Amino acid sequence: MSLPPSATPSPIQAYLDTLHREFSGLTAGEVATYIPELAKVAPDGFGIVLATVDGQVYEVGDARHAFSIQSVSKPFVYGIALEDNGRARVEQAIGMEPTGDPFNAISLEPGTGRPLNPMINAGAIAAAALVAGTTEAARLARVLDALSAFAGRPLDIDQAIFESERDTGHRNRAIGHMLRNYGIVDGDPEPALGLYFRQCAVRVDCRDLALMAATLANGGVHPATGQRAVRSEFIEPMLSLMTTCGMYDYSGSWVYNVGLPAKSGVGGGIIAVLPGQLGIGVYSPRLDERGNSARGVAVCRRISADLGLHFLQPPRPSVATVRARYTLQSVRSKRRRTAAEGRQLDALGPQAEVFELQGDLRFATLEPVLRAVVAGAAQITVLDFKRVGHVDGGAARMLAGLASRCAALGHQLVLSRVRRGELLAGLDAMLAPQAIPVVSFQPALDAALEWCERRLLARPADRGALPVVLPLADSRLCRGLTADEVGQLQAQLHRSQHESGALIVQRGDPADAIYLLAAGEVSVIVDLPGGGHKRLSTLSAGMVFGESALIAGGQRSADVRADTAVDCWSLRAEVFERLKLEQPRLAITLLHNLLSSASETIGRLTAEVAALEG
Ligand code: GLN
């Protein structure tokens, strides 16, 4: 008998359970005792938590057991220092070189006295001194609020641990005074030391650590609360220093063996971050000789190897960036064209090429697209962004470069469905002045296609142009009718004029007449299920709409709106029924003409579907 699904854990959970069992016997190392209060923790506590950037949390063992964060706080307070002072000021005070020395070494750069990096105590105390706030309480609140935002819940301080370190932390106090001696800390170092001891005594559990790591992996936004914990531009410096310095004098081996930006603390916690994917928290308070959790290091090494997480083993793009590629020869806008225009577009279509893109755009994914554009012959390139999730700064710069190339060649670049502000926010600033006029943003792919057609047909936008009235005999519907028959038909038609914007046919109305456009343009519009509208087609003089009235009757399935001033003829269904009996040749010719235009539309749609699937 099989187990019910709820009793059968996910493969990830099962993996962590097994891992926890397997490593529970590893009891190497000793808990830290130099802070007296730390010596009291249960040495064999052991938790592993893995949190994804979309907020899924897998936990095993002592995942909710509270302990002090200690040095795991350092990258986060460094992030606060960056936010409060900017990079330049922080870089002046704290270096970015690994030391190869233990965490509590009094290692300052010869000459400047600058601590070598913010992950050793000296650099962390200097970072604490850079936290903004006019009072000690305000600076502490700033740190607690930020750490809480990273964890996604309010954190507090373990008072006993804080006092224990405050009363015994003479070495750190010495470092504080050295920093003052070199002018890295202004004035009395005691407030900065007090803040540092408190930040180290912040109480967390293993789950908090995994979520803090996942927040770093997620560009600074907590995966579950959605709250931003740090400005995204500071994630990179934080993770860089975690990579090179996060595990003290084990950092080189750590990158080699585990390959994840990480930070350890003498409380027994380790965080590890795989940018864009996940965060790991491990708790096991027995430390190795370098002050890193002995079992934590071993577990992280195993997880990284088993799940293939080393950051130098980056994921390959999972989908091709070009989802569909076609020219205007095979796919057109929903604007219906006269036969002459259609022939012109058949000939000119290859000059405009569309690339529907998908996925995230960065150097590796955009470069092949640019290569294809450059190799192609089109003079108009449409890039559609509907399915693009993210465009990084490098890709935006490459697009600006493409625009410059278009400008030099006299080509055009159409960017459709870009969601400006969200995607490509920085593009405008990157465009060279001569490239600005060759870039056109279009809100819909259909609008982009129509824009290309206008260019190819060299027709300016017709909106607002004075409608020219097409004689009835010249319309498609009357093809094959004698002059007499046209006259007889005309006698049965009703003529009407509509202002631009007027609703000529409304969805749900009875379909009781067919319309023939004598002048102006109309658009057929349907409501989309999720709200919003979509243009099905745009028609101009000589074209017919509402033809279902003569064939199926029933109700109108779409709205038809006048895009310009409109002049049209209508033929009522009941009048047509009478024509069928009294003038069968005339009626048959009308039906024949309707059918031939319908079959042309079907032919075009078939070619479009084939191009989109190809
Ligand atoms: N509070 C501890 C200290 O300064 C933090 C050290 C650590 O976690 N590596 O000694």
TrEMBL record:
InterPro entries, per the entry: Beta-lactam/transpept-like (IPR012338), cNMP-bd_CS (IPR018488), cNMP-bd_dom (IPR000595), cNMP-bd_dom_sf (IPR018490), Glutaminase (IPR015868), RmlC-like_jellyroll (IPR014710), STAS_dom (IPR002645), STAS_dom_sf (IPR036513)
Signal peptide location: none
Pfam family, one: Glutaminase
Binding site for substrate: 71, 121, 165, 172, 196, 248, 266
One GO MF term: glutaminase activity
Name of the top EC class for this enzyme: hydrolase
Catalytic activity: L-glutamine + H2O = L-glutamate + NH4(+)
UniProtKB keywords: Acetylation, Hydrolase
Residue stretches making up the Cyclic nucleotide-binding domain: 477-597
STAS domain segment(s): 354-452
Its EC number(s): 3.5.1.2
UniProt-listed GO biological process terms: glutamate biosynthetic process; L-glutamine catabolic process
HAMAP family, per the entry: Glutaminase (MF_00313)
Family statement drawn from the similarity comment of this UniProt entry: Belongs to the glutaminase family.
Subunit organization: Homotetramer.
Protein name: Glutaminase
Biological classification of the source: Bacteria, Pseudomonadati, Pseudomonadota, Betaproteobacteria, Burkholderiales
Gene this chain is encoded by: glsA1
